[in-house]
Amino acid sequence: MGVCSKEGVVIAVEKRLSSPLIEAWSVEKIVEVDAHIGAAMSGLIADARILVDKARVEAQNHTFTYNECIAVRSVAQSMSDVAMGFGRSSRRERDDDMPSRPFGVALLLAGYDSVHGAQLYNVGPSGTYTQWQAKAIGSGEEGAQNALQEEFKPDLSLQDAMKLAVKVLKQVMEEKISATNVEVATVTPGRGFHITELEVVADVIASL
What we know:
The protein has helices spanning 45-66, 72-83, 141-151, 158-172, 198-207; strands at residues 2-4, 9-14, 30-34, 37-43, 105-113, 117-123, 129-132, 134-135, 182-188, 192-195. It has a single domain (2-207), classed as Aminohydrolase, N-terminal nucleophile (Ntn) domain (Glutamine Phosphoribosylpyrophosphate, subunit 1, domain 1, 4-Layer Sandwich). By secondary structure, it is an alpha+beta fold. The strands form 2 sheets. A 5-stranded antiparallel sheet has the order 8-1-2-9-10, with helices on one face. Helix 1 crosses helix 2 (72-83) and helix 3 runs antiparallel to helix 4. It is globular, with a radius of gyration of 17 Å.
């Protein structure tokens, strides 16, 4: 889930481990798109990698061409265009990386730019994208979204937004929440995209 604050954006995910033998660090559900943009995913991780890789190329091309960071909305639009382009493999000018089926993944795109400040976009499997102040995706989406709607305030600090995201995540998780099965990242004007340290996540969980 993602929560906007007056200082930046917080994204938090549950890292479901199908076996106790899996190393938790190897389950990647939050990734960096650019220095000022991060993404959280729910669904087929392989599909998410295709969208994220194409978004990274788009962001780098923009930086090299215009010598400025790409707008967050432009990245959401780029991901949307790719998601809507499935099935092009039957055309003459086909893209070899484009699957012949819809992408089975939903993404939360969190970013911060100097023009529009903190932004959060939801890119769906159908290719549609919408901007949110707080948004949950995945198996517990309905319950989490209702909780966010009740508790979200536009003037939240970054710390309060992090507490809200982890609190709501705790409510909808099937397993007991811990610093190892939850991952949190922030996007702020000062640090850009940053994965929150385990110790900080543990402190937030302890404070709930």
